[in-house]
Amino acid sequence: MNIVPVQENEQEKLNNYSAANSVQEADFDDICHIVSGLCHFPVTLISIIGSERKWFRSGHPLTTAAATAEFAFCDQALHHPHDAIIISDLHKDYRFRNMQLVKEEPYVAFYAGIPLIGQEGTVLGALCIWDHKPRELDPKQLAALQSLVRQTALLIDLKIKNGQLAQKIEESKTAYTDLENFTTIAAHDLKSPLNAMISLTDLLKNNYSGKLDEEGNEYINYIHNSALIFTDLITAVFNYSRSTHLLSEQREEINFTRLIEEIIGVLKAQDKATLSFDRKDKMIMANRVALKQILLNMMDNALKYNNKETINIELLLHETPLQYTIEIKDNGVGIPEEERAQIFELFRRLPDHENDGKDRGIGLAIVKKLIEKIGGDIKVESEVSKGTTFIVSLPK
């Protein structure tokens, strides 16, 4: 008996499922038990074809995990992928009556095989049923078997897709690790000469400023400040590239009030602004690292873009059954209506502040990226010269 040929693209799909793995799987075992119980068959097999072997993924109660194709009946089903093959008495069929499995143990007398067809039309294998005595299938039994076959094919397709997805995830993790390593090295290599320039210009200012004219000192200051700006820009781009990595941290219960106090300390905001927030402990469930990065960038912006003698920043936390809403209000310069849609774009800065050296136009891009990745939303309300309110919604 010949083995049904398997097309190269079909074999690749089956290999993705690891068809040659002899480990029994409970899902397939359950289907075999249902078939055996439904029709009272002593042997039920689900087989998945390979290029040279026919691997039995599940069986009841057959103990041999795999059988060579020439001793398997399932080839008949695979030769007719659109039909069920039912042979009531193998002893009367010239194709099978001299086979070892018919003449010797386990003395198979009845066989039925129904092909497993995947969603893309790929022949995945067959559901095979044996009995030790001749018998017939009634229409209800056949209809029930065909329904189970369709579900089995869907299950195999799902397992193939899950395997492919798992492989893609691993590839993505490897690619991300490689990219992160590259950006770390690149950032270090780019900043090294800039740091040398900063140190050298500091040395020149300290030791030679009195020996240079005003124009010479201006040149040194220009080089020094440009190197600082480029160093900050490299750091900002590196932080943006790593922002999604922050989401790998698990959600946890966070004391929101303590987190705000921690951020105020980092920014030294208490020395620069009047801060208003609820001092009572409030707990929320969130990714702590991501939330800290979001609030840090937004509060930093509130401090930077403010020309008032007294800077006022107010933080509010609201809670509903479905989400948290965080509001950050300031009395800063405000954002013109025509600019509000662009402020979250990478390297976008307010037109009147493009050359002030305070911002690289990356902080709000990181904020929006993180918020959207965790299923949240951010809105902005603003009035020029009076202030801005950012409203962040985060799912519970």
Which properties best describe this structure?
elongated; 5-stranded mixed sheet; 13 strands; alpha+beta; disordered N terminus; 6-stranded antiparallel sheet; Heat Shock Protein 90; 396 residues; 21% strand
Report on this structure.
The protein is of the alpha+beta class. It folds into 2 domains: about 10-165, Beta-Lactamase, CATH 3.30.450.40; about 250-395, Histidine kinase-like ATPase, C-terminal domain (Heat Shock Protein 90). The chain has 9 helices and 13 strands. The strands form 3 sheets. The protein has a 6-stranded antiparallel sheet. Helix 5 runs antiparallel to helix 6 (about 215-240). It is elongated. Residues about 1-5, about 15-25, about 50-55 and about 60-70 have low confidence and may be disordered.
Quick overview:
This protein is α+β, with helices and mostly antiparallel strands.
Give the CATH topology of the largest domain. Beta-Lactamase
Give the radius of gyration: 35 Å
How do the strands of the widest beta sheet line up side by side?
3-2-1-6-5-4
Overall outline: elongated
Helical region count? 9
Total strand segments: 13
> Could you give the order of the helices and strands?
HHEEEHEHEEHHEHEEHEEHEE
Q: How much of the polypeptide forms β-strand, as a percent range? A: 15-25%
Chart the SSEs and their pairings.
Blueprint: H1 8-16, H2 26-39, E1 43-49, E2 53-60, E3 66-68, H3 74-79, E4 85-87, H4 100-103, E5 110-117, E6 123-131, H5 139-208, H6 214-242, E7 251-255, H7 256-267, E8 273-276, E9 283-287, H8 288-304, E10 311-319, E11 323-330, H9 363-373, E12 377-383, E13 387-395
Parallel strand pairs: 8-10
Antiparallel strand pairs: 1-2, 1-6, 2-3, 4-5, 5-6, 7-9, 10-11, 11-13, 12-13
